[in-house]
Amino acid sequence: MIDFRIARIAFLAAALLLAGCDHRQQRPPRRPDLIAVAESAPYLCDLVPEQAFRRVTGLSIPLRGKWDGPQRGNGLCLAYASGREAPLGLDWSFNAGEQALRRQERMWEDNSSRKLPADLGRGLAVIRPTAGADPRPNFVIALFRCGKRQPWISIDFAPVVRGRDALTDLVGFIRIAEQRFGRLHKCAPKPS
User: Fold this and answer.
1) Kind of pairing between the strands at 74-81 and 43-44
2) I need a surface site. Which of 23, 36, 109, 175 has the fewest CB within 10 A?
3) Residue-wise over 71-89: b if at least 16 C-beta within 10 A, else e?
């Protein structure tokens, strides 16, 4: 007679052995690209390096930056993507910088906004908690000097890929935007 205990152990051992013999190759989990935001052409909206933006957001779809009219004393640009809301917005002005910054400081005073490093001027970076309802939850604004003028720039963009530090990316993008702005407007960006 067969001892049912021995049969049960043999059955469980065979089941465990077969479960571990999956011959399909399993891919290791994809690791996020943690390379720091770096300046490189081409640029979206003249100030944001496209390659870095794609690495940070994971977007591979075609993007097209479009300015809202001529850029004399200010500019608003959205980088559009076919079939979805614009994943990048950029706004700048030579006017009303103090008011723009104060408005943003009041708006985000209850959230976990972070001040920008002093070498970038005055400003803040914030990640808006939206549970996916906001297509551009990452926001940064900087008020700085550029020659004799005091412009401000704000950037908001799509969620970052899992594993990246959105606040670090926000600071990286505004740093590049200020330097690009200075080259385009022939002035040297300095803290305000």
Assistant:
1) unpaired
2) 23
3) eeebbbbbbbbeeeebbbb
